[in-house]
Specification:
Elements lengths: L24 E5 L11 E5 L2 E5 L11 E5 L4 E4 L12 E5 L2 E5 L11 E5 L4 E4 L12 E5 L2 E7 L7 E8 L4 E4 L12 E5 L2 E5 L11 E5 L4 E5 L12 E4 L2 E4 L12 E5 L4 E5 L9 E2 L2 E5 L2 E5 L2 E2 L8 E5 L19 E5 L6 E7 L5 E7 L5 E8 L3 E6 L6 E9 L2 E10 L2
Antiparallel strand pairs: 1-26, 2-3, 3-4, 4-5, 6-7, 7-8, 8-9, 10-11, 11-12, 12-13, 14-15, 15-16, 16-17, 18-19, 19-20, 20-21, 22-25, 23-24, 24-26, 27-28, 28-31, 29-30, 29-32, 32-33
């Protein structure tokens, strides 16, 4: 057997976003149907957004609702099997949702659950082994969830950091973040890096921000947030930019939004939401395709909300993507039919290992699904019908090397 059968000659994938410089817009969508509430949890899978949990002062909830971007409708899904709670960690990893920790109204908790959209069921996963907490910061890199800081109900707040491996269903303590004892920090991930900043230390809102590199398990200080921002901010990511649309400083709920551009490494102000409840905190925020979303939460007068909004950074529709594909010796990979309604087949031969992986990524390089490959050649089915229409990318990985990459179009 040749040990050097595969040589990576070149690898370059890039995305060229062709955008009209017209004004950004906020558009109100169908109201969240679960009633007024704050400290809610939110995440996205495909072209669906999910909001649930939270409380309204009288009730602590364990329900969740699914919003369909295609037809702007909501429906209830299976209730969260843990106790009702708020200020939980909630995210999506490779097409599954992971929700846990939080505060029940009387104490912090550590249980952790996975939600499967195909079966509408929740499955218990490894319990968080650290100190019980809520209002933690978190971000997802690949198949791993990183959890930083938060509160256990007392002061000082927490500053430790943990990583959850969704493939192994294990938690691991990391070297410790540079953040002070802080809860409710701004948090997001772009590319291979995670970011946290701001937050509340029990006395005042903070401005310091940090970048995490998962390859070296190291933190670096970045430019500070332009104003102090407390523990109720929420963020969505569009391309290389993170948009912080809610939150408060030491005295008032913020009326302006702020955007961090990883390309320029700078913060700038942008137009915040329109309509009622323009100033809010404790909401849900997430990204679907080329749009940011924010909903529910508490307004600047202390009232809980149900409104739900879409942010459009431009009015030209979907960006154009350009993909340059690697040339690899003796490897044949084909995805067909292309375009399709979301169901594709991938044929492959010439892999240098009996086991490999296919990663599906969106326009911004986020992994939305992964498949295991068995054998050096074969044909496998990939059902991506849950995803929104648009361009997506795949990587075929063998022996920890990306041996093929390409693009496919979903057009239902």
């Amino acid at each position: 057997m040749k040990t050097n059968l595969f040589k990576l000659l070149s690898f370059s994938v890039f995305y060229l976003l062709v955008l009209n410089l017209s004004a950004q817009t906020w558009t109100q969508k169908a109201n969240f149907p679960g009633g007024t509430r704050e400290y809610v949890a939110g995440f996205t899978i495909g072209h669906y957004g999910f909001i649930g949990l939270g409380h309204n002062g009288a009730t602590t909830y364990n329900d969740f609702y699914e919003w369909n971007q295609t037809n702007n409708t909501w429906k209830g899904i299976a209730n969260y099997p843990g106790s009702g709670r708020y200020s939980a960690v909630a995210c999506a990893i490779e097409g599954k949702a992971y929700v846990g920790m939080g505060y029940t109204g009387s104490n912090a908790v550590t249980d952790f659950w996975m939600y499967d959209t195909t079966s509408n069921t929740w499955v218990s996963k490894a319990t968080f082994p650290g100190t019980k907490r809520y209002d933690a910061a978190w971000f997802v890199l690949g198949h791993k969830l990183y959890v930083i800081g938060g509160s256990d109900g007392g002061t000082p707040y927490l500053s430790d950091d943990w990583v959850y491996d969704a493939h192994a269903n294990t938690w691991k303590a990391l070297s410790g973040s540079p953040t002070t004892s802080t809860d409710g920090m701004v948090c997001f991930a772009i590319g291979n890096h995670g970011y946290v900043g701001g937050g509340w230390n029990g006395t005042s809102a903070q401005t310091a921000c940090y970048e995490y590199d998962s390859t070296t398990d190291s933190w670096t200080s970045i430019v500070s947030f332009p104003v102090p921002i407390g523990g109720d901010a929420r963020t969505f990511v569009l391309g290389s930019k993170a948009y912080v649309c809610t939150g408060s400083n030491n005295t008032n709920t913020l009326s302006a939004g702020y955007v961090y551009d990883t390309a320029t490494k700078a913060w700038a102000e942008f137009t915040n939401m329109g309509g009622n409840g323009i100033e809010r905190g404790y909401a849900a925020a997430f990204t679907i395709g080329n749009y940011g979303y924010i909903g529910a939460g508490r307004d600047s007068l202390g009232g809980d909300l149900t409104d739900f909004w879409q942010y459009t950074p431009c009015d030209t529709g979907s960006p154009t993507a350009v993909n340059i594909i690697t040339e690899i010796q003796n490897v044949a990979v084909k995805v067909y039919p292309n375009p399709s309604n979301g169901v594709f087949y991938l044929s492959y031969n010439g892999l240098n290992d009996k086991q490999g992986q296919v990663r599906i990524m969106d326009m911004f390089g986020r992994v939305v699904k992964s498949y295991d490959i068995e054998g050096r050649e074969g044909i496998m089915k990939m059902d991506e019908s849950i995803l929104s229409n648009g361009m997506y990318f795949y990587q075929v990985i063998s022996s920890d090397i990306i041996i093929s990459t390409g693009k496919f179009l979903i057009n239902k």
